[in-house]
């Protein structure tokens, strides 16, 4: 299944990328990066470092440094200054590519047979919006887009909205309103997918570097404050839902909702039919994630 990952790593991005790069059911042609959880230089470096740990020489194409007409709002409190919760990763095995993300996407989609490449989107949708507006013919050749973002019936995590859509609402509106074959995985689904301490031991017991690194990342993803011990479960594993949905759609409850993106990134009732994952088989997802990370 040929695919390109658009990402802003990010703890949960890193887990998703390790799973996708190692899984034999996915062929990741490249990663494109965007400013989101942290600035572009760090997200780009992190993508290369994650690929190095996975043992995959995946090209990384830097993209947008900021949202469309807005200032960046990084999420350092969750992901840390390095974006990876302080977990050690090797240096990248190859430098970032000179060709920027949108140029790469346009060239690759135009050269490939139509409707053969998926976009797996783990980040604010700035790169994809620029592709849609600057190269609409290339964007029309995408097989499907699977994107983590939004909150439908659930409250958001940035006011009314979810981070990826709230970071760049204008980009989100362009992409979600473009009529692409798109599946959105919102907080309604991802908040059901978490890990506990026993699951971390399951990952560590594989003795595989991607699984061990993911255990360390999830451990950094447990809620903890200065005066409160770690909770019994991690924060939601949002981004791994994207490659898991690409490979195991049967583990997601998909509904068609008629929505639009509001000025702050909130999803409200609107004219655009969008396929939305409103539920998950969390036990099934945990099992499939562990299997993939052990490949």
Report what the structure shows.
- By secondary structure, the protein is of the alpha/beta class.
- It has a single domain, classed as Ribonucleoside hydrolase-like (Inosine-uridine Nucleoside N-ribohydrolase, Chain A, Alpha-Beta Complex), CATH 3.90.245.
- Helix content is 38%, strand content 17%.
- The protein is built from 13 helices and nine strands.
- A nine-stranded mixed sheet has the order 3-2-1-4-5-6-9-7-8.
- Helix 1 packs parallel to helix 2, helix 1 packs parallel to helix 12 and helix 5 crosses helix 8.
- This is Inosine/uridine-preferring nucleoside hydrolase domain-containing protein.
Count of alpha/pi helices: 13
Mean pLDDT: 93
Task: Give the beta-strand count.
Answer: 9
Biggest sheet, in brief? 9 strands, mixed
Overall shape: globular
> Between the first and last Cα atoms, what is the distance in angstroms?
17 Å
Helix content: 25-40%
Radius of gyration: 17 Å
Please identify which CATH superfamily we are dealing with.
Answer: Ribonucleoside hydrolase-like
Written as H for each helix and E for each strand, in order along the chain, the element string is EHEHEHHEHHEHHEHHHHEEEH
Low-confidence stretches: 224-229
Strand order of the largest sheet: 3-2-1-4-5-6-9-7-8
CATH class category name: Alpha Beta
CATH architecture: Alpha-Beta Complex
Strand content: 15-25%
What count of domains describes the coordinates?
1
Helix-strand category? alpha/beta
């Amino acid at each position: 299944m040929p695919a390109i990952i658009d990402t802003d790593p990010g703890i949960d991005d890193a887990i998703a990328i390790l799973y996708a790069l190692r899984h034999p059911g996915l062929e990741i042609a490249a990663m494109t990066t965007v400013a989101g959880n942290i600035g572009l230089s760090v997200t780009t470096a992190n993508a290369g470092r994650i690929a190095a740990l996975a043992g995959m020489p995946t090209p990384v194409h830097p993209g947008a440094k900021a949202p469309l007409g807005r200032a960046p709002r990084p999420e350092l409190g969750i992901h840390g200054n390095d974006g990876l919760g302080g977990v050690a990763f090797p240096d990248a095995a190859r430098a970032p590519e000179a060709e920027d993300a949108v140029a790469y996407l346009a060239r690759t989609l135009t050269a490939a047979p139509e409707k053969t490449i998926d976009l797996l989107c783990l980040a604010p949708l700035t790169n994809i919006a620029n592709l849609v507006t600057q190269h609409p013919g290339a964007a029309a050749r995408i097989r499907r887009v699977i994107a983590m973002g939004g909150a439908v019936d659930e409250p958001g995590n940035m006011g009314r909205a979810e981070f990826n859509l709230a970071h760049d609402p204008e980009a989100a509106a362009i992409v979600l309103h473009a009529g692409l074959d798109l599946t959105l995985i919102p907080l309604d689904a991802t908040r059901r997918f978490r890990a506990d301490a026993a699951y971390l031991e399951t990952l560590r017991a594989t003795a595989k570097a991607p699984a061990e690194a993911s255990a360390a990342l999830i451990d950094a993803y447990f809620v903890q404050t200065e005066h409160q011990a770690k909770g019994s479960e991690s924060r939601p594993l949002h981004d791994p839902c994207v490659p898991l949905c690409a490979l195991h759609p049967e583990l997601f409850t998909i509904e068609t909702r008629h929505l639009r993106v509001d000025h702050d990134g909130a999803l409200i009732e609107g004219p655009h039919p969008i396929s939305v994952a409103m539920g998950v088989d969390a036990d099934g997802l945990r099992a499939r994630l562990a299997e993939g990370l052990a490949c």
